[in-house]
Write a structure and sequence with these properties.
The complex is a heterodimer.
Chain A: H1 2-24, H2 33-46, H3 51-59, H4 61-81, H5 97-119, H6 128-145, H7 153-178, H8 200-222
Chain B: H1 3-24, H2 28-49, H3 70-101
Helix pairs in contact in B: 1-2, 2-3
The chains are: A mainly alpha, B mainly alpha.
Chain lengths: 227, 114
């Protein structure tokens, strides 16, 4: 009885909140002043062609640092939860010749594509997070093709930790030089060039390394462990 | 049917569908899948609120004056990453529950009765 009342209450609340979202946000209308400012002055202020990247890395940079921390915490908690897990697993079959041969040639290409995506975060769609996940997917292919393959946990933690610390140091340098955490202290350059937008490419490269290492660590932990 | 009704409708259908799956299924993996479907719906809803008629992606490599609102897109970028982290966490907890109870059925887990 009480369960049913709760479920009905939940759906009524959900319906009300969804209704208000749809009611007050007319489709296709120009709504916020903040968005106007970002669109009109974003490229001038940050030197970044991709305004979403400018919002993520500079205007809301502190938020992104928190997001990276959440990802780090989740990866760590996952490692702690799955530590020492042993399944009574069946014998692992090695993957077929086609998969293992193809993986050998495709692996470097996926890594290259991931690197391209996070290096060009301020010019094209993409950035550190998608780039990092693409790199992790290359490692997933490696794990699928070579079941015995291991990535050392030490290397992963070292990459992840170094990238995280460098991110915070970049922020602190902004604090020292321009009195604002994560301020853009490097020259902005010409928008559209690879070396432009100040600290945005720097931070996105660090995020790319960090996310790549973290997601690879998650995959490594979720992989069935050998006895 | 105009674009607004389509996108809002799809987002709300995904949210309701996801909640229905999460509330009615007994299998833990299916509950997590339901939560993921709901998350997709919420992301679509956020992106839809930021659409401006005739706008392109907020990348200014031409003299475009009409682009869509970049803020919901930046927020959804955050939400996707957090969603992946939460899903990975939830799956690892499910692995532990399976190891202890040898079942993914929530009716068979004594600690989850109320």
């Amino acid at each position: 009885m009480i369960k049913k009342v709760l479920i009905i209450l939940l759906f009524v609340l959900l319906g009300l909140s969804l209704y208000s979202v749809v009611k007050y946000n007319t489709f296709g209308e120009d709504k916020t002043v903040v968005a106007r400012h970002y669109i009109d002055y974003g490229m001038k202020e940050t030197g970044s062609q991709n305004i979403v990247t400018a919002v993520v890395v500079l205007y809301r940079g502190f938020d992104t640092l928190g997001e990276v921390t959440v990802l780090f915490l989740a990866a760590t908690a996952l490692g702690a939860l799955l530590h020492g897990l042993r399944f009574k697993s069946k014998e692992k079959e090695p993957s077929s010749l086609i998969v293992s041969t193809a993986a050998r040639y495709i692996f470097p290409l996926i890594i290259l594509f991931g690197t391209y995506v996070f290096v060009h975060g301020h010019l094209t769609p993409g950035g550190g997070f998608p780039g990092g996940v693409i790199i992790a997917s290359a490692f997933l292919l490696l794990f699928l093709a070579y079941t015995q393959k291991e990535v050392s946990e030490k290397t992963l933690s070292l990459t992840e930790g170094t990238a995280g610390i460098l991110y915070v140091i970049t922020g602190l340098l902004g604090l020292v030089m321009l009195n604002s955490f994560l301020a853009n202290f490097l020259p902005k350059g010409i928008p559209g060039k690879l070396l432009s937008a100040g600290i945005i490419p720097l931070i996105y490269i660090l995020i790319g390394f960090k996310v790549g290492a973290e997601m690879t660590g998650v995959l490594r932990n979720l992989k069935e462990e050998e006895k | 049917m105009n674009g607004g009704a389509m996108f809002y409708g799809a987002a709300i259908a995904l949210i309701i569908g996801g909640i229905m799956i999460a509330a009615t299924k007994r299998n833990l993996i299916k509950i997590i899948i339901g939560l993921n479907i709901m998350e997709t719906g919420v992301n679509l809803l956020l992106i839809t609120t930021g659409y401006i008629s005739g706008g392109t992606a907020p990348i200014m490599n031409k003299t475009w004056t009409k682009v869509v609102d970049p803020i919901p897109q930046a927020l959804v970028l955050t939400a996707i990453v957090i969603g992946v982290a939460v899903t990975a966490m939830a799956l690892s907890i499910v692995v532990r529950i399976y190891e202890k109870n040898n079942s993914l059925d929530i009716r068979k887990i004594k600690e989850m009765r109320w």
